[in-house]
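stage 2 :: seqdesign
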């Protein structure tokens, strides 16, 4: 039995039968097209970043660029003296707020909450480090040592603690009260993540106020 001849064999390329593939729905959505009367048309207009969708323009750019809040940030740091911050997962936003404090004359002590030990002992007391059975060393209190080394022109010391979400409630309470014990100290604790940069008084997070206790 002879095989059926191919219709395209020996014919010029210009008259070959072309089978057009219909665009898929996902491809049209990626290209910004919509179907109208059976035809695909280019969607023209401005993307709506507010309203019922729940998406705001602040989700795409830094909130301090859209609605400048650096002034409120500085005033809250001076007012509450201990702040809990929540940063986006991708990071980088907190650098703008850190630099603002640096411009005012603050010096920084960067610490990680993991492995910090007892904050009261590490920051304000002479504490031992015991790699037994070799020897035992004593370290000066981290905050008092940095305060003694500050130049006369410095406005104060900012204790910036990352991963503070692992600290217990009592440890957060001590950090919230640290500026009361050391008036030139300000505390910034990274207590979690959020879709945009935000902050609250650390006393409220630690339960030292009526709002936090509730």
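stage 2 :: out
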């Amino acid at each position: 039995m002879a095989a059926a001849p191919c219709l395209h064999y020996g014919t010029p390329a210009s008259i070959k039968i072309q089978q057009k593939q219909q665009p898929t729905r996902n491809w049209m959505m990626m290209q910004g097209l919509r179907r109208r009367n059976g035809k695909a048309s280019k969607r023209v207009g401005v993307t709506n970043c507010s309203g019922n969708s729940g998406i705001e323009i602040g989700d795409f750019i830094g909130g301090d660029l859209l609605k400048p809040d650096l002034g409120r940030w500085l005033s809250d740091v001076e007012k509450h003296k201990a702040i809990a911050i929540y940063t986006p997962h991708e990071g980088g936003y907190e650098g703008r707020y850190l630099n603002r404090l640096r411009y005012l004359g603050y010096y920084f002590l960067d610490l990680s909450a993991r492995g910090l030990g007892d904050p009261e002992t590490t920051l304000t007391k002479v504490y031992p480090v015991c790699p037994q059975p070799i020897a035992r060393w004593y370290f000066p209190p981290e905050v008092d040592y940095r305060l003694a080394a500050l130049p006369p022109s410095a406005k104060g010391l900012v204790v910036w603690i990352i991963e503070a979400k692992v600290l217990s409630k009592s440890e957060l309470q001590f950090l919230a009260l640290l500026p009361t014990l050391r008036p030139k100290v300000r505390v910034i604790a990274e207590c979690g993540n959020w879709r945009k940069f935000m902050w609250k008084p650390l006393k409220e997070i630690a339960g030292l106020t009526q709002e936090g206790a509730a």
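stage 3 :: structure notes
- The chain has nine helices and nine strands.
- The two ends are 88 Å apart (CA to CA).
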